[in-house]
Amino acid sequence: MSKKSAAVNLWIVGSVGIDDVKTRTADRKNLMGGSLPFSTAAASFFAKTGAVGVVGSDFPAAFERRWQAFGTDLAGVQRQAGATFRWACAYDANMIERETLKTELGVFADFKPELPEAYKSAAFVLLGNIQPELQLHVLKQSAGAKFVALDTMNLWINIAKPALRKVIRRVNLLTVNDGEARMLTGKWNLCDCAAAILKMGPSHVIIKKGEHGALLFSKRGIFIVPAYPVGKLVDPTGAGDSFAGAFMGYLARGGRVTDGLMREALLHASAVASFSVEGFSLESLERLTLAQIGKRVAELKRMMAV
Amino acid sequence: MSKKSAAVNLWIVGSVGIDDVKTRTADRKNLMGGSLPFSTAAASFFAKTGAVGVVGSDFPAAFERRWQAFGTDLAGVQRQAGATFRWACAYDANMIERETLKTELGVFADFKPELPEAYKSAAFVLLGNIQPELQLHVLKQSAGAKFVALDTMNLWINIAKPALRKVIRRVNLLTVNDGEARMLTGKWNLCDCAAAILKMGPSHVIIKKGEHGALLFSKRGIFIVPAYPVGKLVDPTGAGDSFAGAFMGYLARGGRVTDGLMREALLHASAVASFSVEGFSLESLERLTLAQIGKRVAELKRMMAV
Predict the structure, then answer these.
(1) Fewer CB within 10 Å, N- or C-terminus of chain A?
(2) What are the residue ranges spanned by the domains of chain B?
(3) What is the CATH code for B10-304?
(4) Is the confidence metric ipTM above 0.90 for this complex?
(5) In this predicted model, what pLDDT tens digit does every residue of A258-270 receive, in sequence order?
(6) Strands (E), chain A
(7) Is some CB atom of chain A closer than 8 A to the CB atom of B192?
């Protein structure tokens, strides 16, 4: 999309969409959406981040400018003739359940992610929520990947489990929500789910519980991160993507993976996700500063301090 | 019930029952149950605790011995002619929802709690989950109460809200689960619920979220305590009562109420509740030692440490 392609610390592959979102009090159309804008925007607060995805010829130039304003490198975002992926959903009154009203793949149907040369040496990779086959295809182009995280969703667990298991074997970290962890493993207790996932290959698994925070499991134990108690929940869309992006961005900034950095990364991810849901689309992240993130991380620490 | 009545640091009023509990894998009958045995047993790990309740002539002497073995003072437990309160429930396969199969009030129907002389100077009081009128009746007999906590349930919010609001006005702390907080306040967001409850009188409110931990709200902020990730969930009955009892027992032991002590009390409550659900009835608490509680509190702290 952008001509310039700079070396990045982290690249992320995912979907780019134009969303309609309906909540009890609002009905917003033609919003920038998809897992990629949320995750790369969140990551770009911390590290030089490259985006790998596809948009159609109808993807507004204004969206591109707003995305780039986060500092995200868009060299890996192809612009194809055709329509951008479109998605619409409606939330229930309590913003817990959502109904998908529309999914039009557009150019996303024939998407074949290609990694810009400048991304190939990046040590940190986040395989955002797209078809497992594509995640594998793009991962194979990456020579420098040292720490790879994988995000997925119930759809792929349902219709592409063998391919998904193949990707899971090759990554260091799997991030899933509690329902997906249960679906993937056939177990209910989240400790059992985590133990089963750790046997599939990854050294770490993050189970996201939305408003209840997240759990990080590894051989060395469990780390619990609460969700920041959000006073005004406007739109939960993209919260999980913002969480994963901020987590990986924080790690990529440090360039190392230690238990201590992972815990800090989780707190920063929780803080960024809590801001993300305070506005539609990327609107709240666009107003956000590193200082505000730091303040919320400090608040979270105070809420957990004994 | 017991002749001897000793001075106590904390007294608790609640229900005493004989329970049948059905889970996916087990069907147990005639278990010691009710909010009072769970809460007083949990509190007795930390402080001299008196129980205020009623049992029928059929309440087994073995239950009384097992209860007393926790060190709980039973001088406030009346033995009346008639049947002990009986309750039966069945849990769904995932131990999340439960169906009440039987509620037979027995002697509990005409229960009029009377406070033993020796309890009247106790500074700490937990009004366990019974009719709000009875909670108020027994609270009025207490001259020494300095820090009063109130536990309640959806039933009283539904059928006795005015009386409940009267009790809420007189207590320092309300403990409710998330569903009850929403029912009581008519709000969904838990921050909004807490703000509304703090306006009703209490200086502190604890919102319990079961497997997701608990939140303590006060004017000075929020404290988040996670649930200890339990590997083997056997029977969730009484978890909330154990939590409230352990919390108040821990505070009563210190004899003071500070933010720091409250946070420690919440961690101890979380640990005790996590043991409680690892067995039926009081079985897991009967095997429990202070050292094991301390170990799990230390583990919880490690899981939260950054």
Answers:
(1) C
(2) 10-304
(3) 3.40.1190.20
(4) no
(5) 999 999 999 999 9
(6) 10-13, 17-22, 27-33, 49-55, 73-79, 85-91, 98-104, 124-127, 147-151, 173-177, 204-208, 214-218, 221-225
(7) yes
